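Case study 2.
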Amino acid sequence: MIISHSRKFIFIKPRKVAGTSVEVALAQYCGEEDIITENVLLNEIDETTARDFRRNDTGFFNHMRSKRIKKQVGEKIWNSYYKISIVRNPWDMLVSRYFWNKKNATPRKSVGEVCGEILKAPSQTHLYGKLFFAMKRTLLREEISPEDSFDAFLKKLPHNASNTSYYFDDHGKPYCDFVIRFEHLQEDFDTVCEHLELPHTEIPQLKTKVRTSRDYTSFYTSETRAWVEKEFAQEINAFGYTFE
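Prediction:
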């Protein structure tokens, strides 16, 4: 996620939409006072072609949702800055997320282990809040394992798995001035660069070494296909996505 005061734009970063690649492409043109959240690159190959531009991100975090960003920066900045995000066919996005989560699956930690790590951390700011949310995540979250099927993965998704709240407020009003389509990523990013008066920049291909199949349709049953259509209805209808 980026808030660029020097260029007057906000980059809102949903999950599994090539957000890291676009973030890195934009971050190189940001100033020292701009806000760029921490970016976790996937592997050594990515780290040789890109860097983490993290700076000034106290109070902000990766994949921060639009409503919270708006509250954090205030109405004046929110209303005057150019707001950018990315959308992807939800059926395809969930398959991408499935492979990513399987690759990065970690053993579930106990409440004691999580609390111990927090207590040992250098910063103890808002300690009780950190402990509460850590225990809540640990107790309620269902971890995916490398052996899980796609159907099992869908059942373990959190209630806010949809990216819809990155694009629309509680009344259905769009948050963004421009939404890049994953399906024609470079073309739409060129439009962003033109608007922000940035030089033409090729988007790096980051976090792309995980997925083993590009045919997302084969992962779905009629039931899971219908479930996605229901859960992601707002963005499917707004952006005109279909299953195939």
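Strands lie at 2-4, 9-11, 35-36, 82-87, 178-181.
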